[in-house]
Structure formats: structure tokens, C-alpha cells
Amino acid sequence: MLDHFGFSVHPSKFEEVVNWYLAALAPIGYTKQMEFPGRAVGLGASKEHAHFWIGAKEDETSFGFHLAFAATDHETVDKFYEAALKAGGKDNGKPGIREMYGPTYYGAFVLDPLGNNIEIVDNTPR
Q1: Do both 25 and 78 map to the same domain?
Q2: Host domain of residue 49
Q3: What angle do CA 64, 95, 123 make, to 5 degrees?
Q4: Domains contained in the chain, number
Q5: Mean pLDDT across the stretch 108-126?
Q6: Considering 62, 97, 113, which residue would you say is the last residue of a domain?
Q7: Model pLDDT, residue 106
Q8: pLDDT, tens only, 69-114
Q9: Does the pLDDT at position 40 exceed 90?
Q10: What is the mean pLDDT of the chain?
Q11: With bands split at pLDDT 50, 70 and 90, how would you rate the model's confidence at 28?
């Protein structure tokens, strides 16, 4: 199951792209759910969760995508992280609580062979 998806654009295009997606996705109820000014905007149709992220990055070589899978518990997050590294992925954030995303946000990040940021997250309240 997918939790959220995102991609990055050059800062000079950031506001234009965000505004375009806000307008284009308005008919299906998407609004701005979370914002890190000038760096990232999370859009979604639910007031509880941003499912689609747009980020700003200077380095065009890091314009790959970010994909997050949903887990049902911390153990699954840990197992994904270990399996992804064993399969050749590169660490991009060990499993742990990410309070900047919420008090129950337990996630891990791994770069796939192409450099895309793959995450798994458990948002289950403890």
C-alpha cells in the first residue's frame, strides 16, 4: 500500500508547479495540507494526511522521485530497511521517529539503485 509520493523541481519553477497542481487537483478535493516554505508542499484530499509532495531542489541530478509505502507496525519498517540495504540500497535515514512529520511518524529511508528515495512509514498511534 502506498503512503505518499513526491518529486522535486528547480526552485525557479517551484511556485508555478505548486500552483498548477493546486488548480488541477482542486476538482478532486486536493488542497495544501502541509508546507515547508520554499522547500516542500504536501497536497491531499484529507485533512489528516498529505499524499502528494512537491519539493524544491537546486541540484538537477537529485530530481528523482520519493515514494513511501505504508507499514502497519515498527517491525515491518525495520525489516524493510534491512532487506533494502541487503539488496543493494543505500541508507538515507535509519528507522526511527520523525517528529517533524508527526509524533507517531516512524519511518526509514533507502536510496534505490537509481538514487530514488524510497521510504516506509508506520503512523500507528502508540
Answers
A1: no
A2: 1-62
A3: 85
A4: 2
A5: 87
A6: 62
A7: 97
A8: 889 999 999 998 999 999 889 999 999 999 999 999 999 999 887 7
A9: yes
A10: 89
A11: confident
Say which DSSP state 79 is in.
H
List Cβ<8 Å contacts ≥24 apart for 38-41. Answer: 38/11, 38/14, 40/6
C-alpha cell at 62: 537529485
DSSP E strand stretches across the chain? 2-9, 31-36, 40-44, 52-56, 65-70, 90-97, 106-111, 117-122
Of all residues in the chain, the percent with pLDDT exceeding 90 is: 52
Are 70 and 124 in the same domain? yes
Q: How many angstroms separate the Cα of 52 from the Cα of each of 17, 87, 106?
A: 13, 27, 18
Alpha carbons 35 and 15: distance in angstroms, whole number: 12
Do 79 and 103 lie in one domain? The reply is: yes
CA pair distance 62, 71, nearest whole angstrom: 26
CATH number, position 41: 3.10.180.10
Cell numbers placing 100: 517533524
Q: Please give the Cα distance from 111 to 81 (Å, whole number).
A: 10
Q: Which of 63, 70, 62, 108 is nearest to 89 (CA)?
A: 108
